[in-house]
Amino acid sequence: MHKLVVSLSLFAIFIHSVFGDCTWPNGTDIGKHWWQLPSSIFNIYGLLNTNSQGQQEYPIHLNAPVLAILYVNNTGPVIRQVQVDIDLAEWNPSNCKWNTIPTFGLLSNLNGCSIGISCPIPQGNKILKVTIDFSQFQAIIGLLKNDAAYQMQITLTNQATGDKIVVFDQARAETN
Asked: Domain span at residue 69?
């Protein structure tokens, strides 16, 4: 009997190590998780998402415009033109890793001021409202799983100075 218990315990440990046990990363089943890479000129100290009626929204619905409210401190120059590059990854609960989703350049070199960032971005402490309308990227959204965890790496580049602001945003998202 003792051998059977030991064998079953070892088998359970093996299965857990091979197949993992990580359904939602960083608490994304109940709330978003985000961080910014260090920047000497621009700091985001708060980020939340609302729907078009101004109500906080979670999970995020990618089939409708999302309003992101950012609490920022811009200690650098006024940002008049911003380039946006977005990298996507999907959480794989079987191997506990983020897997890159190819976007074939559709989310690269975007004009931030024309896709929803309020430009110019002035100096000082500000509340920025950014509208993100994923419907224009339906070719990508249509390929995503519904009710899954996704990570966006958003790189904002000040076109005048080349300074970069990099934010990672992990969230549960619905696609239908």
From this structure: 23-174
Tell me how many domains the chain contains. Answer: 1
Q: Rounded to a whole number, what is the largest CA-CA distance in the chain?
A: 73
- 9-59 pLDDT, tens digit per residue, is 444 444 444 555 689 999 999 999 999 999 999 999 999 999 888 899 999
Question: Residue 15: CB partners within 8 Å, gap ≥ 6?
Answer: none
User: How is residue 28 written in tokens?
Assistant: 């994304």
pTM of this prediction? 0.84
Residue 39 falls within a domain, yes or no? yes
| 169 strand-pairing partners | 34, 152
Query: Does 2 fall in a domain?
Result: no
CB 76 within 8 A of CB 42: yes
Contacts of 53-61 with C-beta under 8 Å, sequence gap 24+, read 58/30, 58/31, 58/32, 58/171, 58/172, 59/147, 59/171, 59/172, 59/173, 59/174, 60/32, 60/171, 60/172, 60/173, 60/174, 61/173, 61/174
